[in-house]
Each structure stands twice: as structure tokens, then as C-alpha cells.
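R.M. (postdoc): so does anyone remember the format we settled on? I'll just put the C-alpha cells first.
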């Protein structure tokens, strides 16, 4: 049917074997253009070709093994066409696939021996046909950019030069889309890997502590409605150290990426391994600092460590800050105060200044640990004035915690997450980890009106 013997061989139906080359067919499918609607960029180029050459019809066509799909078809009454395509044997486009990248030009289709008996010549009223291949980056023929004249004609050098240039423009547009698609797929894979790595840094479920409620959340930086998420360095954990003693830790490694994840993982598991053997939170964090220096950790770390146990009336423990923001305690009556003394961050200096601060929690009291993403939240860029008032700071977090008076640990975390999300409108400049521990109230408890600002300490 091709009219000439194909150099690459023929299929059983007589068409060029190159049509069914699996690599070429896969490349056509990878354009993402098959079975899609008309688009202005392709229609504009096809219309330009028809206008400059003075022909009535112009096509941007993708050719797979079985059909010619018309991504653009100028001069065709689509209302009279069931679909934007024809079977491959009903199209001249397979000549371009057979030619492997050379143009195919016919001045009198009814007289040219290559097309005289072609099944499309008469029914499609093809007088003259000129087409140039659409090529991918590896030179594979994806389809054609062609014009059709109802009458035989001589194609001028200017006509052919125009078609060649426009065909290269269409090919460039397709290649750009292929690169974009590949980039998006790679980005999604990267995001999936980041999610997997991040999940490995966090406990699948928080440890159950008798007589206490626990809840936590992790919000990654950047727009959470997109896939541009890179694994961060925030982590938290809650575990039993020995006997009826428990520990909670929350840390923030500087930076993001694999190195930050390595430091997070090392810190979390070093803390777990040493927790049962170390006397105080300050001692434990000192040992972690020594381990980081010995291993030449590529990132520094801020952390808050809490060692605690249940008492007859609630819980008691010790908290230590290593370059980390102070914890917040929400009393059962709604008052909120900071807890912990400033200390040296980890992984930089061998000598540290760390302070163990004792605390007690009564029924209904809640302890909140958080990373600095919770007190440095900014609105989505371009949606609010870039001034100091736009930053969600320590006072804002404190006030938000005041408004959770009476809520259990899970509801408190949900509320704070919602407040932060509303402030930065789905865009977060930094990772944010939250961990809440609450002593279960002695009796029924539910949300109630929060205290006035004067109750803050």
C-alpha cells in the first residue's frame, strides 16, 4: 500500500514496519497528546501554514501503530467527523514514518505512483500534499505537520521552507511538553520518596501513656497542594524509657534533604538508645551532642527533651531545651505559660549550656512542644503585607493555645493546625511539628469558654 517497497520492511497489512516499532509508539504515547482536544498553540501554527501556502487544509497529526490522530485539523468539518482521527492506512502520514525523518511532498497525488492508488487520494480529494515530520529529541518520527491542496500544484521553495520551520516549531512544543511531563513525574517520585523518608523519621503511632492523652502532627514546608515537598529535619517521638518513666522529644535539624534526614534519624535513635541509661535530659542531650560531633554530623540540631512520670494527681518531670523554643503549658483553667530555660543547640560546640527545669502537670493540664515553624509562620507570598505583623509569632501561638481551653490533646493539635493553615493559606515557609501531652481530667470535660487575655502569664 505504500507504493514503494519500504527499506525497513513491511507489516502483514503492507504498511511500513516502522509504524509498529515499540520504541517509536511509546514515544508517541509519551507526548500525552493522543485523544486530547484542540489547543490554540497547534491550531495557530496549522492555520498559519494553510494561510501562507494558500491551501485549504492543514494538520498536526500524531501517528501510532494504528491511526493518525489529528491534534489540529484546519479546514475540516469536525461536525461531520465522528472522531479527530483516521485509520493509519487512510493517511499519507505513514510515508513520513517510513522515510525516517525526511519530508514527503506530492504535487499531483492522482498521478504520483506513490499515491495514485492510495485509498485516501480520491475520498479525501487530495490534489497535492506536503508534510514534514514531527520529531522527538532522539529523532523518532511522532507524526506529521502537513498541508493539503484540493488541486495539483507545484510547491514553491518558500512553501516548503515555511512548512519545515513550522514543523520544527511544533516539534519543539511537543519536546518541551515531554520534558515538562518527565520533570513532573520525577518531581512526584521525589515527593513520594520525601514522604516515605519523612514517615520513617516519625513514629507510626504515639506511645500510649496511662492516664494521659497524646497527639502530634507534622506539616511539611511549601505548598501542601502541590508535590514540591522535600524531606525535612523535624521529628518527634514519645516512648517509655524504663519502668513507669516516659520521654517525649521533638527536634528540628537545620536544612532539608537527605543530610537533614540522616541527622534526624541518628538523633532520634540515639536518644532512644541512651534514654534508659542517662540521668537527666541535659545529660542525654549532652551525649547526643558528643555523638553528632564524633560522627561529623552535617547539620546542627535544636531539640527539646522531656522526661516524665505519672503521679497520684497528674504528672511530673524535667524539661531541657537545646537551642529550641520553650514549651507551652496550658493549665486546666486556661492559663498558658512558657516552660524551659534557653540552652545551646547541638552538633556545633563540645561545651554546652543546658538546664534541667522541673515541672508538674495536674488533671486537665496540657504540655505543648513545637518547632519554630509554628512561631515563624508567614502568609503566602503576595497575599499580605510583608511586615512584622504578618508573622505568626510566639504571642499568636500562645493566644491560639488559650483558645483551646478544655480541648483534649487531639482536638488541640487539630485546632492549632487549622489556625496555622488559615494564617499562611496552605503555604508554609518551614516544616512544623507539634506534640501535645495532656493529663486526663478527673471528671467529664469538654470545650468551654477560654480565659481573657489577662489570664496569660
Amino acid at each position: 500500500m505504500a507504493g514503494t517497497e519500504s527499506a525497513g520492511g513491511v507489516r502483514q497489512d503492507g504498511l511500513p514496519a516502522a509504524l509498529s516499532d515499540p520504541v517509536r509508539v511509546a514515544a508517541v504515547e509519551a507526548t500525552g497528546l493522543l485523544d486530547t482536544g484542540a489547543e490554540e498553540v497547534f491550531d495557530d501554527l496549522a492555520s498559519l501554514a494553510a494561510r501562507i501556502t494558500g491551501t485549504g487544509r492543514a494538520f498536526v497529526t500524531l501517528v501510532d501503530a494504528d491511526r493518525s490522530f489529528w491534534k489540529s485539523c484546519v479546514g475540516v468539518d469536525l461536525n461531520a467527523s465522528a472522531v479527530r482521527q483516521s485509520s493509519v492506512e487512510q493517511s499519507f502520514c505513514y510515508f513520513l514514518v517510513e522515510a525516517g525523518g525526511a519530508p514527503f511532498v506530492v504535487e499531483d497525488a492522482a498521478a504520483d505512483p506513490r499515491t495514485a492508488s492510495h485509498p485516501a487520494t480520491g475520498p479525501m480529494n487530495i490534489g497535492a500534499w506536503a508534510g514534514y515530520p514531527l520529531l522527538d529529541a532522539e529523532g523518532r518520527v511522532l507524526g506529521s505537520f502537513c498541508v493539503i491542496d484540493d488541486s495539483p500544484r507545484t510547491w514553491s521553495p518558500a512553501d516548503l521552507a515555511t512548512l519545515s520551520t513550522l514543523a520544527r516549531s511544533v516539534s519543539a512544543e511537543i519536546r518541551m511538553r515531554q520534558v515538562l511531563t518527565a520533570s513532573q513525574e520525577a518531581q512526584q517520585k521525589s515527593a513520594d520518596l520525601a514522604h516515605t523518608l519523612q514517615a520513617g523519621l516519625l513514629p507510626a503511632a504515639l506511645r500510649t501513656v496511662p492516664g494521659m492523652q497524646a497527639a502530634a502532627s507534622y506539616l511539611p514546608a511549601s505548598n501542601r497542594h502541590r508535590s514540591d515537598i522535600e524531606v525535612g529535619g523535624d521529628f518527634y517521638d514519645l516512648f517509655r524509657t524504663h519502668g513507669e518513666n516516659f520521654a517525649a522529644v521533638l527536634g528540628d535539624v537545620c536544612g532539608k534533604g537527605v543530610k537533614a534526614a540522616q541527622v534526624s534519624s541518628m538523633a532520634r535513635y540515639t536518644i532512644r538508645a541512651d534514654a534508659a541509661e542517662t540521668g537527666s535530659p541535659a545529660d542525654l542531650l549532652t551525649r547526643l551532642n558528643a555523638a553528632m560531633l564524633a560522627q561529623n554530623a552535617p547539620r546542627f540540631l535544636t531539640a527539646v527533651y522531656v522526661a516524665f512520670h505519672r503521679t497520684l494527681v497528674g504528672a511530673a518531670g524535667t524539661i531541657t531545651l537545646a537551642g529550641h523554643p520553650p514549651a507551652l503549658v496550658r493549665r486546666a483553667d486556661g492559663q498558658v505559660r512558657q516552660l524551659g530555660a534557653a540552652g545551646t543547640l547541638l552538633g556545633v560546640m563540645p561545651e554546652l549550656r543546658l538546664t534541667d527545669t522541673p515541672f508538674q502537670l495536674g488533671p486537665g493540664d496540657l504540655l505543648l512542644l513545637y518547632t519554630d515553624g509554628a512561631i515563624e509562620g508567614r502568609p503566602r507570598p503576595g497575599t499580605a503585607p510583608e511586615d512584622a505583623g504578618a508573622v505568626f509569632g510566639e504571642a499568636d501561638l500562645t493566644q491560639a493555645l488559650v483558645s483551646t481551653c478544655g480541648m483534649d490533646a487531639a482536638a488541640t493539635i487539630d485546632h492549632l493546625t487549622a489556625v496555622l493553615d488559615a494564617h499562611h493559606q496552605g503555604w508554609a515557609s518551614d516544616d512544623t511539628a507539634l506534640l501535645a501531652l495532656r493529663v486526663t481530667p478527673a471528671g467529664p470535660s469538654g470545650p468551654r469558654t477560654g480565659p481573657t487575655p489577662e489570664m496569660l502569664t
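R.M.: ...and that's the designed sequence above, right after the C-alpha cells. Also worth knowing: The first strand starts at residue 57 and ends at 63. The helical segments are 22-30, 40-53, 93-99, 157-201, 258-275, 281-294, 394-402, 409-424.
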